Amino acid sequence: MKLRHLTLFALLTATPLWAKQASNVLNLQQRSYRYLCDNKKNVTVHYITTEDRKKKSSVSFLYIDLDNQSYGLTEAVSASGARYVGHHGTDLSHGLVWWEKGNSASLYSFAGDDAQNTHVIYQDCRLLKRH
Fold it and tell me: What is the mean pLDDT of the chain?
């Protein structure tokens, strides 16, 4: 289901005619926030939510602007807070995890497909403002 929404979103953003026709079916919303992390690095996170009006389902994903690069992550299971995982991170052999709770978040990296075995890139990221 999530893959279908992500694929449809990619097509919609690339094709304005399809976007107009699909606007009756999908509701797309984007929110952008800036965080300041413990190493004085700024991270901008763009949250995108799609809602299928006919099926009453939704999917969330985000992309992070980090060191003049953007990385896409999809919503993942989390015991607490919100967690997003992307399997293409700072290089092709590493993925990224963005984990947030309240007004704070952390960014992690993992090797291969093992998103449970992470190491910290940025921690103690504090929400600065919404764009």
Answer: 79
Answer yes or no: are the C-beta atoms of 118 and 125 closer than 8 Å: no
Q: Kindly give, in sequence order, each residue whose CB lies less than 8 Å from that of residue 97, ignoring residues fewer than 6 positions away.
A: 73, 76, 83, 84, 85, 86, 107, 108, 109, 110, 115, 118
Q: And the tokens for 131?
A: 């764009």
Domain covering 27-130: architecture: Beta Barrel (2.40)
Helices and strands per DSSP (H, E), number in the chain:
2, 8
Whole-model pTM?
A: 0.71
Boundaries of every domain in the chain: 27-130
Please give the angle made by the CA atoms of 85, 87 and 90, to the nearest 5 degrees: 100
Q: Coil, helix or strand for 20?
A: helix
